[in-house]
Each structure stands twice: as structure tokens, then as C-alpha cells.
TrEMBL record:
<dbReference type="InterPro" id="IPR005493">
    <property type="entry name" value="RraA/RraA-like"/>
</dbReference>
<comment type="similarity">
    <text>Belongs to the class II aldolase/RraA-like family.</text>
</comment>
<comment type="function">
    <text>Catalyzes the aldol cleavage of 4-hydroxy-4-methyl-2-oxoglutarate (HMG) into 2 molecules of pyruvate. Also contains a secondary oxaloacetate (OAA) decarboxylase activity due to the common pyruvate enolate transition state formed following C-C bond cleavage in the retro-aldol and decarboxylation reactions.</text>
</comment>
<protein>
    <recommendedName>
        <fullName>Putative 4-hydroxy-4-methyl-2-oxoglutarate aldolase</fullName>
        <ecNumber>4.1.1.112</ecNumber>
        <ecNumber>4.1.3.17</ecNumber>
    </recommendedName>
</protein>
<dbReference type="Pfam" id="PF03737">
    <property type="entry name" value="RraA-like"/>
</dbReference>
<dbReference type="InterPro" id="IPR036704">
    <property type="entry name" value="RraA/RraA-like_sf"/>
</dbReference>
<comment type="subunit">
    <text>Homotrimer.</text>
</comment>
Length: 203
């Protein structure tokens, strides 16, 4: 399956979205270096400190989706190697969680992308089933089922489903424009010249 964001990075998508995209709190970040995810959100409303909702979500979410879970920022390791392997078996692309995760070295080895507020060893209960396919809040952003969720080294961006086609087309154009800028800069043009920026105080 092709990359749901055409390979574009979060910064490009954010800028190209014409203010439709929302940037998650920067404290919500990749749990291991190099993690990247892009796909439609499968939303999970759970209870902090309990991960039954995540175990259920892995069994319910459609292949190609990204789990987006609100666990209220709880400092528990709600997700780890076992759930990552289970998710990969079901074709789930990754996890964005308002809460904590663990087993991050193992998940890097698996190449399973995870974005979380905390990394912590503390375990969880398995009592609350949670709810799926409802709007959830992660990183101070409301995510609706089917919104495009993209995470990379710069953070997590959410593009509302209806804004995705226009955002991706403008992102393509933006990358071409930046390639032209980089060519000029590499041959000695200053960024001030290229962008026509003022050159000094009072200019
Ligand atoms: O205990 C859990 O369910 C979370 C975890 O560490 C794993 O998935 O490996
Ligand atoms: Mg574990």
C-alpha cells in the first residue's frame, strides 16, 4: 500500500494544509528515533492506566489504520512489544497515544511506529473495554475517526479527512518549490535574496 501522506513530512503537510491541519503538543513524540506513520485514524477512548481498550482495538481496527488513543496522559506503559507484534499481524500501521508506552527498543527493532507522551515501565490494568470510533483528544488536538494522522521526527499532525486531497496536492507543489529554492541556495543565492526578505534593521 502506498504512503497515505505520499511520503510528505509533518512540517510540509502542516504548512500545505491552509490551516486545516492541527499540530499535536510537541511533548507527544516518536517513542524511538526514525519512527514514521501515516494513515487514517481508528480512534480509541480508554481509561488511563488500563489497556484493555488497546487489546480490543488491535482486534477491531481495519488494516491500514493508525490507532489513536486517549488515555488521559497517564504515566503507564499501555503498549509494548506484545501489542506491537499483534498490531503488525493485523496490518495496523502504528499508534499515537495520549499516555505512556514501553518496550521501545523492541518496537524500534520491529519497525512499529509509536508516538506517545511518556516512556515508562509501569504496567496497566485490563478492566475497561473503552470505546471506538468517537472523537478523541490527543496532544491537545481532537481527532475524528478517519482523519489523516502523520507522525515523524518533528511530531504528530492531524489533517481532517475532508482536507486531505487538497493538502496532499499543495504539499506536492511545496516540495517542488523547496527543491528549486535549495538548488539556488546551494549555488550561492542567499535565503534573503531568494525570498526577497529585508536585509537589515530599518530596511
Ligand atoms: O502489558 C501490556 O499489555 C503492554 C506491554 O508491555 C506489551 O504489549 O508488551
Ligand atoms: Mg511488554
Amino acid at each position: 500500500m502506498t504512503d497515505a501522506a505520499r511520503g510528505h513530512g509533518t512540517a510540509t503537510l502542516y504548512e500545505a494544509s491552509a490551516e486545516a491541519a492541527r499540530a499535536c503538543d510537541p511533548a507527544l513524540r516518536a517513542a524511538w528515533p526514525g519512527a514514521r506513520v501515516a494513515g487514517p485514524a481508528f480512534t480509541v477512548q480508554g481509561v488511563g492506566g488500563d489497556n484493555l481498550a488497546l487489546h480490543r482495538a488491535v482486534a477491531e481496527a481495519p488494516p491500514g489504520s493508525v490507532l489513536v488513543a486517549d488515555l488521559q496522559g497517564a504515566r503507564h506503559g499501555h503498549w509494548g512489544e506484545i501489542l506491537a507484534v499483534a498490531a503488525q499481524q493485523r496490518g495496523i500501521r502504528g499508534l499515537v497515544v495520549e499516555g505512556g508506552v514501553r518496550d521501545t527498543a523492541e518496537q524500534a527493532e520491529l519497525d512499529f511506529p509509536v508516538f506517545a507522551r511518556h516512556i515508562t515501565v509501569v504496567g496497566t490494568g485490563k478492566d475497561h473495554p473503552g470505546r471506538f470510533d468517537v472523537p478523541v483528544r490527543v496532544g491537545d488536538v481532537v481527532v475524528r475517526p478517519g482523519d489523516l494522522v502523520v507522525g515523524d521526527a518533528d511530531g504528530v499532525v492531524v489533517v481532517p479527512a475532508e482536507a486531505v486531497p487538497g493538502t496532499l496536492d499543495r504539499a506536492d507543489a511545496r516540495v517542488l518549490a523547496e527543491q528549486r529554492a535549495l538548488e539556488a541556495i546551494r549555488t550561492g543565492t542567499t535565503t534573503l535574496e531568494y525570498y526577497g526578505l529585508p536585509t537589515g534593521p530599518g530596511a
